């Protein structure tokens, strides 16, 4: 196993001591949302108990303190993804809102009829539907790269798809179903070679993989706080400052303006131009605390632990009959395992596992095109984080065998 100490770290997470149906909880639904350590909840309580006021508005002490804490959180997020400057980090509610912002601002300004937006078949709906909406409004077209037989992004197909018409390439850093980490740098270089910008959906990677937006050569990077030990309602969009500065506002209202007249207004500089209205202040501060917490453990250590967990679990799962596994194996595989018990609906599998205290997700995982490509309606999914242990994997595999055998008796 890796250097990190899951058993010690678990003490920061009171929820992980819960029993579900009388059994110790095994939380394997981290790709949907991780749990929060006390440090994050305490940072938010401290803000509410001692410092709350609206930000960027008042000269009074509390407002100055709240503003400083909020802006400090922005600097932490910038540091976490190695952004060159905090001014190009925009707080959003989540990844979904961040991608909608890009589509509605950058996309609306730059897309023309016939232009192409390139995604891949494994994208989450959050990185598909916003592009459909803006394509309908601008006359642009959405095209998708397929997967290889190993279920990696097909780089040859990407080469074939890319052309002077490509304006936006939008790909997840890590798939929420296949667990594969896409070669973003290589994809970004190809996108740039035809004059397209690179949008990276970092919802799954930011919590698990060390992220360096400069090394990735990304133009846009998005993340969700709730998947990385932060609160719900806090996410971020990072964009290259020179691109963000040229983008028109997405939402209008207070705080995003320079001057407002009855018939027109002018807009604030970045990042405020994209943060209309009172933001999720406590949540942003909570996200900053989550970043501190993750950095305290170490992102390389977290990724190594996830990978060790997935290797261990796959070793146990692969020999099992009647269990189908999805996703490639190798150094590019993060801690997610999508699987099916053949002949049994994944919802039944997830319900049976819940009876054993094990939380897994079942469904299409907001990736219907991928489900079609895999030839299934839905799958179950186990996803790991730094607080999960090999012993939990052992219990999970035992419970899965019991579940398979139980349903087989009715087949
Ligand atoms: N992209 C990916 C790859 C995801 O896994 C998710 C969350 N399941 C999202 C985008 C959307 O994240 P959110 O719901 O936090 O906006």
Structural class: alpha/beta
Give, in spatial order, the strands making up the sheet with the most strands.
Answer: 4-10-9-8-7-5-6
Question: What is the count of structural domains?
Answer: 2
Bound molecules: 4'-deoxy-4'-aminopyridoxal-5'-phosphate
CATH architecture call of the largest domain: 3-Layer(aba) Sandwich
Tell how many strands the DSSP assignment holds: 17
Largest sheet: 7 strands, mixed
- The coarse overall form would be globular
The third-level CATH topology of the largest domain is Aspartate Aminotransferase, domain 2
Share in β-strands:
15-25%
Number of helices: 13
CATH level-4 homologous superfamily of the largest domain: Type I PLP-dependent aspartate aminotransferase-like (Major domain)
CATH class of the largest domain: Alpha Beta
Low-confidence blocks of residues: none
Order of helices and strands: HEEEHHEHEHEHEHEEEHEEHHEEHEEHEH
* N→C terminal distance: 38 Å
Q: How does the SSE layout of this entry go?
A:
Blueprint: H1 6-9, E1 19-20, E2 23-24, E3 26-27, H2 38-51, H3 61-80, E4 89-92, H4 95-110, E5 116-120, H5 129-138, E6 141-145, H6 155-161, E7 166-172, H7 184-193, E8 197-201, E9 220-224, E10 235-239, H8 241-245, E11 257-260, E12 265-267, H9 281-297, H10 299-317, E13 323-326, E14 336-341, H11 346-355, E15 358-359, E16 361-363, H12 368-374, E17 379-383, H13 390-408
Parallel strand pairs: 3-15, 5-6, 5-7, 7-8, 8-9
Antiparallel strand pairs: 1-2, 4-10, 9-10, 11-12, 13-14, 14-17, 16-17
Bound molecules: 4'-deoxy-4'-aminopyridoxal-5'-phosphate (PMP).
Residues 94-96, 124, 126-127, 172, 176, 201, 203-204, 224, 366 line the site of 4'-deoxy-4'-aminopyridoxal-5'-phosphate.
